[in-house]
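[step 3/7] fold_predict: job queued, chain A
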Amino acid sequence: MKVDVRYRPAFALAMVTLEPGEDVQVEGGAMVGMSANIEMETGAKGGFLKSLGRKMFGGESFFLNTYTGVKEGDSVALAPPLPGDIEVIDLQGETLMVQSGAYLASSEGINVETKWSGAKTFFGSEGLIMLRISGTGTLIVSSYGAIHSISLAEGQKYAVDTGH
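[step 4/7] structure written:
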């Protein structure tokens, strides 16, 4: 999967190019356009209870769409529901905690679950539930507003307000 993010940071659009037989899992409503050959299937990923948890507590869609490339160069254009930025993250067995609504799409091998985040995020006006994203593969997340990436050295810490 190749992801090219365009029109950053205010109106980002992710152009996802798939190899034949390659899949991408996409949040409902995120598809802007796609190649005529792409196959699409809609389903409750992880089963009924996990899907219900994502919908009720994580602010995500109950159903996820799976787009599968058929011909070389097939692509899907994706955008978040609100103007903002998109970041592509290659996970190598790591776990990330992201704000509800940040998940846009991922390759196979990425698991998205809701996670109780406690009073810290609740009193910071971010809600009680975050998304726990883990696995190995490509993750595409979005935000309302620009994303500013910071690389940290081993053991280095950097505090980020829960609203950002």
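[step 5/7] annotate
Residues 48-56 form the longest helix (9 residues).
Confidence is low (pLDDT under 50) at residues 54-58.
exit 0
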